[in-house]
From TrEMBL:
The name this protein goes by in its record: DUF202 domain-containing protein
TM annotation in the entry: 35-55, 67-89, 109-127
Membrane topology according to the record: Multi-pass membrane protein
Organism from which the protein derives: Saccharopolyspora karakumensis
One Pfam family here: DUF202
Record-annotated DUF202 domain positions: 26-94
Entry GO terms, CC: plasma membrane
Length: 130
């Protein structure tokens, strides 16, 4: 295990790395890549929210529906970002303990949530001309 020169673990979060055995590095790296994919998804959602609100700001007739859509995309990005780390920790803990991996909780929420946002965007597009 890596140390910082004083005998303490230099890896964070310490309490995670203090339990269980070191898993195969391939699994740890795959877990990290998955975490980074969720972070990229969060950034894309937030960028979409900013883009929708920017469109709203420059349009001749600003729309409350566009603002709600922008806020929904931003909140989805925040949720995705916040949940990505807890998912990474839970998966890493399971790998270290030799337990089954936790069920994905964010994927269905994000999938259905984005489905609702997509339907709202389509309704906005066809009803109001966006």
């Amino acid at each position: 295990m890596a140390t910082d020169g004083e005998g303490e673990s230099a890896r964070w979060p310490r309490r995670l790395y203090e339990e269980g055995d070191e898993p195969d590095p391939r699994f740890t790296l795959a877990n990290e890549r998955t975490f980074l994919a969720w972070i990229r998804t969060a950034l894309a959602l937030m960028a979409g929210g900013v883009g929708v609100e920017a469109l709203n700001a420059v349009s001749a007739e600003p729309s409350d529906i566009r603002t709600v859509l922008a806020v929904a995309l931003l909140l989805a990005g925040v949720l995705c970002s916040g949940t990505a780390f807890t998912r990474w920790v839970a998966t890493e803990r399971a790998l270290r303990r030799g337990e089954p991996l936790p069920a994905p909780r964010l994927a269905p929420v994000l999938g259905y949530g984005l489905g609702v946002i997509g339907v709202a965007a389509c309704v906005l597009l066809f009803v109001t001309g966006f």
